[in-house]
User: What shape does this take?
Amino acid sequence: MRDFETLSQAMNVLREEGYVEDFNLKQNCIECRNGEFKVFHSEFEIDEYFRFEGMSDPDDNSILYAISSDKYGLKGQLVNGYGIYSDDITDEMLDKLKMG
Assistant: This one.
């Protein structure tokens, strides 16, 4: 797995690699383009993920997911805090986003 020092550095590299969509986490899907695409857990793959930990504040922890959907021909990024376990999402979405 690749290693990046900052979240923004990783996001820039992924954009250069074609991960240009900005996904938002919803209860039972991820969506992009202001809701034009709603992509459910069975319709996307997590190609890579990167963990970032804040130097002094544990609230700064986050995960960057590089996501692709063959069904919709989309590649994008989802940034989420380590708190996905407390988010109001379906079990299927939680299982899909659990990493290591």
